[in-house]
Recover the amino acids of this structure.
């Protein structure tokens, strides 16, 4: 339990961990059952839905799946990592193997190096050396990716290119375990796409390019301005107040500071803990606060939110 919490807040958080809801995690189980049921239903209902409605329904489902995987990585709904991995292994989002996501994301939770390029695996910043050595088109892409509009268009392709480049470099250095991990992932992706090809209203390629990549782009709205460079780690993580559909699809991770400070707290308790001490949380991150994703879009649809170069690494 973080030592900055006052006694009353500490007691509130501890009391939540002892509730029947927390012990059973029934909301997460219900969410898992609902997701699997909905995904299979949409895929199999090809005659009723057709291509357009199948794509329209699968995109938010895949966005939700990425948020569900995040919960599983953080130890929900069971105490056993292998069980959670089994529940979240299927690559409905196609691109990222569960183990890579788990390893990089848990490393990202080292708040002392949060946003630092080369140390935070999820950093959206680059060093000044990288910037100076990069050609003009790379610099332009990085600036474009710092706008909401650009993020929606180039964010997913850039992330996938980085994934491919990183994994190709490490594939031959990491031994058989990495080959085993990627083999399992590729086999699962092929099985999923074959199922889609044979039973749904859309083809496997439509699933990849019209469902998976757009879903990844929407998920990147959440991470667009989740973190910023700052001298103090607690000032680096945002609070975005949102109660709309994106908040649901992101499983309340818009309250990102609460999640980073209490990473074991399940998604369904994040709003409750935040609202109980709203002013304290906003004070804690020095006012790093956004009033909803619509505000972020209005202010930064075409205007960069900040500089791609990390200020401490210039």
């Amino acid at each position: 339990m973080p030592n900055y919490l006052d006694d009353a807040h500490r007691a509130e958080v501890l009391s939540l961990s002892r509730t029947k809801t927390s012990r059973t995690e029934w909301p997460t189980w219900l969410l898992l059952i609902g997701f699997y049921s909905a995904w299979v239903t949409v895929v199999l209902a090809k005659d009723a839905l057709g291509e357009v409605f199948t794509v329209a329904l699968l995109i938010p489902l895949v966005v939700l799946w990425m948020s569900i995987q995040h919960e599983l990585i953080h130890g929900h709904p069971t105490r056993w990592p292998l069980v959670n991995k089994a529940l979240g292994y299927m690559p409905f989002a196609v691109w990222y193997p569960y183990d890579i996501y788990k390893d990089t994301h848990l490393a990202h939770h080292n708040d002392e190096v949060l946003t630092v390029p080369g140390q935070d695996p999820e950093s959206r910043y680059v060093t000044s050396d990288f910037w100076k050595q990069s050609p003009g088109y790379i610099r332009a892409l990085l600036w474009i990716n710092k706008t909401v509009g650009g993020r929606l268009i180039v964010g997913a392709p850039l992330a996938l290119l980085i994934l491919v480049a990183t994994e190709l470099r490490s594939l031959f250095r990491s031994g058989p375990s990495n080959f085993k991990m990627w083999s399992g992932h590729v086999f699962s992706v092929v099985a999923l796409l074959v199922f889609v090809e044979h039973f749904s209203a859309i083809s496997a390629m439509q699933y990849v390019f019209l469902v998976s990549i757009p879903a990844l782009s929407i998920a990147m709205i959440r991470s667009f301005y989740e973190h910023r460079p700052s001298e103090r780690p607690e000032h680096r993580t945002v609070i975005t107040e949102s109660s709309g559909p994106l908040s649901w699809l992101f499983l309340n991770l818009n309250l990102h500071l609460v999640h980073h400070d209490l990473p074991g707290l399940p998604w369904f308790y994040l709003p409750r803990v935040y609202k109980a001490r709203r002013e304290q949380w906003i004070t804690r991150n020095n006012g790093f606060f956004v009033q909803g994703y619509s505000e972020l879009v209005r202010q930064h649809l075409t205007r960069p939110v900040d500089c791609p170069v990390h200020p401490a690494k210039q």
Q: What stands out?
A: The chain has a mean pLDDT of 93. Residues 7-313 form one domain. Strands lie at 239-240, 289-290. The CA atoms of residues 111 and 233 lie 6 Å apart.
